[in-house]
What does this fold into?
Amino acid sequence: MGKPVIPFQALNFVQGSEQRAHSDSIHMTTEPPGYLVATWTALEDCTADCGPLFYYPGTHRLPYIMSGDYDSGNTRFTIGNNSNRRYEDKIENLIREQGFEKNCCLPNVAMCCFGMPTSCMAG
Ligand SMILES: [Fe+2]
It folds into this structure.
């Protein structure tokens, strides 16, 4: 990207988050858009019953979906009721309408997965 990299957040999960497919760009928006790279590192071998990482190849080419692109219920100062669920519904519909196929990742310990700003994934 030709820019210095600044690590700014870490999340640790003991088990899978059970979160639906999403793009991190709605949670961690950069200005200008497109300067987020998310990494996911396995701290132990992952099996299918661990709540493994899943992703939809090709979704990194989707446009940015922000709160103005779906019925978020947000105002300038408040987050609408069920705004995140509505966002995930929007993403689920896009994935279904455009025929993206779900892939599951079962990484071994210390394996890293990278997600681009609009990649749809969860785990
Ligand atoms: Fe995420």
